Amino acid sequence: MSETRERIKCLIIGSGPAGYTAAIYAARADLHPVMYTGMEPGGQLTTTTEVDNFPGYPEGIDGPALMIDLQKQAERFGTQVRMGMVTEVQLNKEQGGIHKVCVDNSTWVEAETIIISTGATAKYLGLPSEQRLRGGGVSACAVCDGFFYKGQDVAIVGGGDTAAEEATYLANICNKVTMLVRKDELRASKAMQHRVFNTKNLEVRFNSEVDEVLGEQVVEGLRILNNQTGEKEEINITGLFIAIGHKPNTEIFKGQLDMDNTGYLITQGKSTKTNLPGVFASGDVQDKEYRQAITAAGTGCMAALDAERYLATVESNEEVTAK
Ligand code: NDP
Question: Is 304 inside a domain boundary?
Answer without folding.
Answer: yes
